[in-house]
Write a structure and sequence with these properties.
The protein is of the alpha/beta class. The protein is 41% helix and 11% strand. The chain is built from 16 helices and 10 strands. The strands form 2 sheets. The chain has an 8-stranded parallel β-barrel with strand order 3-4-5-6-7-8-9-10, surrounded by 4 helices. The chain has a two-stranded antiparallel sheet with strand order 1-2. Strand 3, helix 1 and strand 4 form a beta-alpha-beta unit. The longest helix is centred in the last third of the chain and has 20 residues, at 269-288. It is globular and about 60 Å long. It starts with a strand and ends in an 11-residue tail after the last helix.
C-alpha cells in the first residue's frame, strides 16, 4: 500500500479507502438478529482483507443503514491504534438531533472515538447554513472534538462548486470528501482551494460515479489499454499529489484486487496516464469537435438558476460522455437519478422543458442554438426507468 499525508490532520492515509456502503445487509436499521450470518461473514472478510492490504481507513456513515452496526462487530477486534475510522452524520436544523444521531453511530460502532468525523452531505446553501451558523452543527462537532470523541472534522458534499468553496473558505474543516475524476473534473478548483487550506482530499466513489468502471463499455476498455478503465482512473486521480485517497466501495474481499494491481504503476502514474488521457480526449474531439469538447461547459447556469431547475450542466456532461466514449449505461444511471434523489442528485432531467426559453436564457453562449436539441436528444438516449439512490432502494 502507498500512503499520503492527509492534509493538516497529519494522518498517513492509504491511497485507497475501504468505503462502507456496499457490503452491509440493509440500507435501513434492523434488529441485530436480522443480520444474516453469511452477510456478516462477508463483511468481516472484506474488512480483514482491506487490513491485510494496508487499507486501514474504514469509512462509513449513519446513512448507510446497517453498515455501522455490522462494523461494530469487527472493528473493536482490530488494533485500534492502526485503524483510521470515519463516519458521517447529516446536518440538522436542530443540532440536538445531529448530536443524537452521532451518539447512535457511536453505539453501533462500539468505539470510544472516531478519527475522522464528517458533516455528511453539505449539498445546498441551506444545509451549509445549518452547519456553520452560530450554535449550528459545526459547533456541536467541535465540542465532540474537545471531548475527545472525534479527532478531526471534515465534510462530504455533492454540492455545486459555490457551496463547496464557501464551506472550505470557513477554514474550519480539516478535510473534504468530494467528487472528482476523469469524467467529471468540475471540482478541481475546489481541490486547489482545499489544498491552500492544507485540507485532506478524499475522492468519493471514483469507480461508480466515475463512469461505472466495474462494467465499462468495450470502447472505453480499448481506449484505456493496456490499463483497465478502473486502473486508468485510479492513476489519473493519484497522479495529482493534491488527491490523497480514493474510496473503494467494496462488496466482497476480491473487490480490492484490481485496485492493488494498479499500484504497480504508482511511481510512474503521470507517464502511464498521459498517452491514455490524450487518446481519450482525441476520441472525444473526433466525435464531437474541438469547440464542443473544450467549451461546452463554460458559463452554463447552475440548476438553481434554470426554469424548473433543469440541470443543464449534468445532462450535457452525460450526453457528451455517452456520445464520445459510449458511456451510455453510466449516463442512464446518473440521468434517471435527476429529480429522484433529493439534494444528492439535484435538478431535473430534460423530460419537459421550453426550448425557446432555454435558448433565450443561454443568449450569448456559443452553443445556445444547439443545446435545446442536445437536451432533447439526451433524454431520448438516456431516459429509462426512474433510478433511486441506494439508500432509497
Amino acid at each position: 500500500m502507498k500512503y499520503r499525508r492527509f492534509g493538516r490532520t497529519e494522518l498517513q492515509m492509504p491511497v485507497f479507502t475501504c468505503g462502507g456502503m456496499r457490503y452491509q445487509h440493509k440500507w435501513s436499521d434492523v434488529e441485530p438478529a436480522e443480520i444474516p450470518t453469511d452477510n456478516q461473514q462477508n463483511l468481516e472478510a472484506t474488512i480483514h482483507r482491506a487490513f491485510e492490504l494496508g487499507i486501514n481507513h474504514i469509512e462509513t456513515a449513519r446513512g448507510y443503514g446497517t453498515s455501522e452496526m455490522q462494523l461494530g462487530w469487527v472493528l473493536p477486534k482490530l488494533p485500534r491504534e492502526k485503524l483510521i475510522v470515519q463516519t458521517k452524520v447529516s446536518p440538522a436544523a436542530d443540532p440536538k438531533d445531529f448530536l443524537a444521531t452521532f451518539e447512535r453511530s457511536m453505539r453501533y460502532l462500539q468505539l470510544d472515538y472516531v478519527d475522522l468525523f464528517s458533516i455528511h452531505g453539505i449539498n445546498t446553501a441551506e444545509l451549509l447554513e445549518w452547519t456553520i451558523r452560530e450554535g449550528g452543527c459545526l459547533e456541536a462537532a467541535q465540542q465532540l472534538q474537545r471531548d475527545g470523541r472525534v479527532k478531526h472534522i471534515g465534510f462530504s458534499t455533492h454540492g455545486t462548486p459555490a457551496v463547496i468553496n464557501e464551506a472550505i473558505n470557513t477554514g474550519e474543516f480539516d478535510y473534504v470528501n468530494l467528487h472528482w475524476y476523469f469524467v467529471n473534473d468540475f471540482n478541481w478548483p475546489c481541490i486547489e482551494n482545499a489544498r491552500d487550506y492544507d485540507m485532506g482530499i478524499f475522492i468519493i466513489s471514483p469507480n461508480d460515479k466515475g463512469g461505472k468502471l466495474y462494467a465499462p463499455p468495450p470502447k472505453l476498455e480499448r481506449l484505456c489499454a493496456p490499463l483497465s478503465p478502473m486502473a486508468f482512473n485510479n492513476l489519473y486521480c493519484l497522479s495529482r499529489p493534491d488527491v490523497h485517497t480514493l474510496s473503494i466501495g467494496a462488496a466482497r474481499p476480491g473487490d480490492f484486487d484490481e485496485h492493488i494491481q494498479s499500484l504497480e504503476y504508482y511511481d510512474l502514474a503521470g507517464e502511464v496516464v498521459a498517452p491514455i488521457e490524450a487518446r481519450l480526449r482525441e476520441e472525444m474531439v473526433n466525435t464531437l469537435g474541438h469547440d464542443w469538447v473544450n467549451h461546452w461547459h463554460e458559463d452554463l447556469p447552475e440548476w438553481t438558476e434554470t426554469p424548473n431547475q433543469l440541470n443543464i450542466l449534468e445532462i450535457l456532461r452525460l450526453w457528451t460522455l455517452a456520445k464520445s466514449l459510449d458511456l451510455v449505461e453510466f449516463g442512464k444511471m446518473r440521468y434517471n437519478l435527476l429529480g429522484n434523489g433529493g439534494h444528492w442528485f439535484p435538478g431535473t432531467n430534460a423530460a419537459s422543458f421550453d426550448a425557446a426559453q432555454i435558448r433565450q436564457m443561454l443568449d450569448g453562449h456559443p452553443f445556445a442554438d444547439r443545446i435545446p436539441g442536445i437536451l432533447a436528444e439526451a433524454h431520448e438516449l438516456l431516459a429509462d426507468k426512474e433510478v433511486k439512490r441506494l439508500s432509497q432502494s
